[in-house]
Amino acid sequence: MSIETTLTLVTLPVELLYYIFDQLDINDILLSLRNVCTQFRAMTNTYNRYKVRYTSTSVKADIHRICRIIRPEHVMSMSLTNSHRYEISDRIELFFSLIDIHQFTHLHSLDLFDIDDNNLKNILQYIITVPTLKNLSIGIKYIENFSDQTVDLLSTVITTSGIHKLHLFSMNYMILKIAWSSKSKLEHLALDSCSSQQLCYILDHLPNLRNLSSDHYYSVKTDPIIFPSTVHRLTSLKLHSTGMTMNYLESLLSFTPSLVRLQLMNYFTIFDFLQRLSLGIFYP
Hints:
Blueprint: H1 14-22, H2 26-31, H3 38-46, E1 50-54, H4 60-69, E2 75-81, H5 91-98, E3 109-115, H6 117-127, E4 135-140, H7 148-160, E5 165-169, E6 188-191, E7 194-195, H8 196-205, E8 211-218, E9 236-241, H9 246-253, E10 261-266, H10 270-279
Parallel strand pairs: 1-2, 2-3, 3-4, 4-5, 5-6, 6-8, 7-8, 8-9, 9-10
Helix pairs in contact: 4-5, 6-7
């Protein structure tokens, strides 16, 4: 006589339920699923891969409720975005006013967008003390208010932390002020904007860098044409440029012989690029 068993979510292995949790929003887990039954409540208490994501449109009441429930040491990644509008309240400041940032002891990834200088300084001081953090993305709200102290803190984070991936947005004017160090463990760097001078400066100071990308790569006509001072072990390069010449590209590539992936987007000289690449001819 066969015994029929009914398969429900509660009877699934915990590891499988955790995988399902990985696909859900934190509000769905803690404000809905958690309240279904005592088993789910217990699972949400032990689950330690929470992904916090709030934007300027997130409901403030939900943020308050989540901060009362969440165990900070169980949060693996955070993405917090403010509004660029003055009349919208600061979601990043609100979140960290409810939970001490130093309680997030196992954070692996942190994204901060439209953040002001004061909040960024506080968070950078925290990042220096967190060995688990590997991915960091920063977008500045008001570049004109970016202080020298914040630049120094960011330089310290790049030099002393274990961060491997760094994304910087709206910070191209600060690139040459940052003290990029050869001691840095950075392997991936993404910039929303970068000049030819800044690119060479970065390559000269980050020998461990393997992947570099820029959504807007440009040359300043008044700047002298420069190249890296030595050969670099970069393996992946992505540049979106509106005025790079083929001659410059050839010279730049001669300094990156380890390159295995090259992605170029160039609007104004596409015919020249295709003609030279199709012929396989590289001449100065």
